[in-house]
Design goal:
21 strands; Cyclic nucleotide-binding/CBS domain-containing protein; 4-stranded antiparallel sheet; alpha+beta; 622 residues; 24 helices; [protein-PII] uridylyltransferase activity; CBS domain; Beta Polymerase, domain 2; Jelly Rolls; CBS-domain; 4 domains
C-alpha cells in the first residue's frame, strides 16, 4: 500500500478560482448550479506517493486535477495493474461518490494539487440536472453526443436522423404480369412514378413481386423491338430489394450503392409496403458524394475508369468524417463501394463463362464491412470441386496487380488470391479448416481468425456456403475457442499514456491495445454462439440477444469500438493531409480533453470485456 500521510485539504476559502466550468461535464450545469458548485469547491494537496482514494472505498469528494499526475491501479487477484494516468483537467472519484465505492486505487505519482467537489453538493447536482447525471450514468453514449455537439450542424444530420418512412416516398403502384407495356407506361404517367411493382407470374418458383422501371419499358420498345402490347411480366426484375421503414436514410443509401440500383421498396412489418424510395429522394436530404463514385463505377468500362473512381474514396471518407457520420454507417457505405470495386476488377480478369465456378471472398476488415481507408489486400478464392483453368494463376496475379494500382497494396503475409494457399476448391477449403482446427500454432490461429470474417463479393456466392458451414462448425470445439480467445489478451491496454504524454512520440497503437481485443473477442464469441453475421456491431447485437453479453457490455462495447475507430480514422486522415503514412497510432497530446476522456472510457470498456472473456473461457491465472 502507498502512504497516506499529509494528503488533505488546503485552507477553505469562499470561492476557489481556476476550476473551468465551461468544459464538459460542468458546461451542462445552468448558471445557478455552476455558482453553487463554485462556492462549495475546495482545494487539496497530495504529496507524491500518497494514496488519495482506495479501491472499493467511498469518497467525500470528486477530484478535478489542477496540477500533477494521479495513477489509477486495478486491484486484481494476480496483483495490482496500472489502469491509467490522470493529468490536469481530468476528473476522478465520481463513481466512488455515486456508487459508494471506487473502481480503482488512485495514487499521486507526483505532488498533486486538485479541486475537491463535496460529495453532498455533487449528489445534489446529479439530482437537479438530468443531463449532468446522464453524463456519469450513461457514460460513453452521452459523451459521444456531447463531443458531436462541438461540430457544426450539417445536412448530413438529416441523412443520419431521418427515417425512411418520413422521406418523400413514391406510391407503390401494382400491376399484373399480363399488363401490356403500353398500359404500364400509361399507369406510370398517371401516377407520376418511374417504377411499377409487378405481381407474381405463372412460374411456381418465381418471386411473387418484381419491379419494372421506366428505363426497362423504353429499352424493351426501342432496343428489343417488343410490341407495345407485349406483357410486362418478363421485363420485371426479381428479387425486389427492400429497406425497412424505420431504417435511416443513410442505410437506404448504402443499400442502393451495394445493389447498384437507384430505387428500393419500403416495407414495414406491421403496415406492409409503404411505397418506394429513390436516389433522388435521398439526395433531396443530402447531396452525397458517394452517388457520384457509384455512378462512375456503374459506367466504368476499363480498369483505369475503376481506378479513377476509387481515388475519390478518401475524399468521400474525409468529407463524411468531418460531417460527423456514424462510424457503422460510414463503414457500410465504404464497404459497399469497395465491393463494387472488387467486383469490377474480378470481372475484368475472369471470363464470364467461368465466374459461376469461382467465388471471390473479402477477408479481414473488408469481410466484416469495417474497412474505411484502403488497406492491404485480404482476399481468397473458392473454386468448384473439379474445376480446372490453366489461366487461373495468371488471372489472379493480374487481379492483385490491378488492386495494387488502384491503391490496395499486397498483403505482407500473403493472404490474397495471388497466393495458391488462398485459392482452393470446396474440398480443399474443408481440409484447410480441419487443419486449422487441429494445428494450434499461432500462424494457423491467425489465418483462421482472418478467414472467419470471409464474405462473398464476386463470382458465385453459393460456392462459399459449404465452406462457411465448415467454419461455423468450429464453434463446437471449446478447446479451439479457448485458444482463439486467449490471443485477445495478448496486448495490454494502453491506458498509462493518458493525462500527459510519456515515452515514444509515436503515440499509442489503438488497433493492438483497443480495437483488436474487441473485434477478435466478439468474433470468437460469435463463433461459439453460432452467430453468422460478420460485422462487429451486428455480432455484438446478436450476442446480447443470445444472452452472451450483458446489457451493459452489449451497450458499451459497440460505443467503445466506434470511439476508437473514429479517433484512429481522424489521426489517419490527418497523417495523409500532412504527407505521412496512415497507421493505427493516435497521439493523445493532440486530442481534446473530452476526447481523451472518451478514449479512456473506451479503453476501460476494453478491460471489462477482457474480464468477460477471461470468465467465459476460463482464462484466469490459477
Amino acid at each position: 500500500m502507498q502512504p497516506r500521510a499529509r494528503s488533505g485539504r488546503l485552507q477553505a476559502m469562499d470561492s476557489v478560482p481556476g476550476l473551468d466550468l465551461s468544459q464538459p461535464p460542468f458546461d451542462l450545469l445552468d448558471a445557478g448550479q455552476q455558482s453553487r458548485l463554485r462556492a462549495a469547491v475546495d482545494m487539496g494537496f497530495h504529496p507524491a506517493g500518497t494514496t488519495i482514494l482506495d479501491a472499493g472505498s467511498d469518497s467525500p469528494h470528486v477530484h478535478v486535477i489542477l496540477k500533477g499526475v494521479v495513477r489509477a491501479w486495478d486491484e486484481r487477484s494476480e496483483g495490482a495493474t496500472l489502469f491509467a494516468d490522470f493529468g490536469p483537467g481530468d476528473l476522478f472519484g465520481a463513481w466512488a461518490v455515486i456508487a459508494g465505492r471506487a473502481r480503482h486505487r488512485y495514487v499521486a505519482e507526483e505532488d498533486v494539487l486538485d479541486f475537491l467537489l463535496p460529495a453532498g453538493v455533487f449528489r445534489r447536482l446529479l439530482a437537479d440536472n438530468p443531463a449532468f447525471a446522464a453524463y456519469f450514468h450513461e457514460g460513453l453514449s452521452l459523451k459521444r453526443r456531447i463531443a458531436a455537439g462541438d461540430q457544426q450542424p450539417s445536412e448530413l444530420s438529416e441523412l443520419m436522423l431521418t427515417r425512411v418512412r418520413d422521406a418523400q416516398l413514391a406510391p407503390a403502384i401494382r400491376i399484373a404480369a399480363a399488363t401490356p407495356i403500353r398500359e404500364a407506361a400509361s399507369r406510370m404517367r398517371e401516377a407520376r412514378v418511374d417504377c411499377l411493382l409487378v405481381e407474381g407470374r405463372r412460374d411456381a418458383d418465381a418471386d411473387p413481386l418484381g419491379i419494372v422501371t421506366r428505363t426497362d419499358l423504353l429499352d424493351a420498345l426501342a432496343l428489343d423491338a417488343r410490341p407495345p402490347d407485349a406483357a410486362v411480366g418478363p421485363l420485371a426484375r426479381r428479387p425486389v430489394v427492400a429497406v425497412r421503414a424505420n431504417d435511416v436514410l443513410f442505410q437506404a443509401l448504402v443499400t442502393m450503392t451495394e445493389h447498384h440500383i437507384e430505387r428500393v421498396l419500403v416495407d414495414d412489418d406491421a403496415e406492409g409496403v409503404l411505397g418506394t424510395l429513390g436516389m433522388a429522394e435521398v439526395l433531396a436530404h443530402y447531396a452525397s458524394h458517394s452517388h457520384l463514385i457509384s455512378l462512375r463505377l456503374e459506367r466504368a468500362a476499363t480498369l483505369d475508369d475503376v481506378s479513377a473512381a476509387a481515388r475519390e474514396m478518401t475524399t468521400l471518407v474525409r468529407h463524411l468524417h468531418a460531417q460527423g457520420a456514424r462510424m457503422s454507417y460510414l463503414m457500410e457505405l465504404v464497404s459497399a463501394l469497395n465491393g463494387r470495386i472488387l467486383g469490377h476488377v474480378f470481372d475484368a480478369v475472369v471470363p464470364a463463362a467461368l465466374r459461376e465456378r469461382t467465388c471471390l471472398l473479402a477477408l479481414g476488415s473488408e469481410g466484416r464491412r469495417e474497412q474505411i481507408l484502403k488497406t492491404d489486400q485480404d482476399n481468397a478464392l473458392v473454386l468448384a470441386d473439379g474445376f480446372e483453368w490453366d489461366g487461373l494463376a495468371d488471372a489472379m496475379q493480374r487481379f492483385g496487380d490491378a488492386l495494387a494500382d488502384i491503391g490496395y497494396p499486397p498483403c505482407p503475409g500473403g493472404v490474397m488470391v495471388r497466393n495458391p494457399a488462398w485459392r482452393l476448391d470446396v474440398a480443399g477449403w474443408r481440409g484447410r479448416i480441419e487443419h486449422w482446427r487441429h494445428d494450434r500454432d499461432p500462424e494457423s490461429a491467425m489465418a483462421l481468425s482472418i478467414a472467419l470474417d470471409a464474405r462473398p463479393v464476386a463470382g458465385n456466392p453459393a460456392l462459399f456456403e459449404p465452406v462457411g458451414a465448415a467454419m461455423g462448425a468450429l464453434g463446437r470445439d471449446e478447446i479451439l475457442l479457448r485458444e482463439l480467445a486467449r490471443s485477445t489478451l495478448a496486448f495490454s491496454t494502453p491506458l498509462t499514456l493518458f493525462g500527459r504524454m510519456r515515452g515514444s512520440a509515436e503515440g499509442i497503437d489503438l488497433k493492438k491495445g483497443g480495437i483488436f481485443p474487441l473485434v477478435h473477442g466478439i468474433r470468437v464469441l460469435a463463433l461459439r454462439h453460432g452467430v453468422t453475421r460478420h460485422n462487429s456491431f451486428d455480432r455484438c447485437a446478436a450476442l446480447m440477444q443470445a444472452g452472451a453479453l450483458s446489457s451493459e457490455l452489449g451497450r458499451d462495447v459497440p460505443q467503445a469500438l466506434a470511439v476508437m475507430m473514429r479517433m484512429r480514422l481522424g489521426a489517419q486522415l490527418q497523417a495523409l493531409a500532412e504527407g505521412r503514412d496512415a497507421d493505427n497510432r493516435v497521439d493523445p497530446g493532440r486530442l481534446r480533453r473530452l476526447d481523451r476522456e472518451l478514449l479512456r472510457d473506451a479503453l476501460r470498456v476494453v478491460n471489462a470485456f477482457k474480464d468477460h472473456l477471461r470468465d467465459s473461457f476460463q482464462l484466469r491465472a490459477g
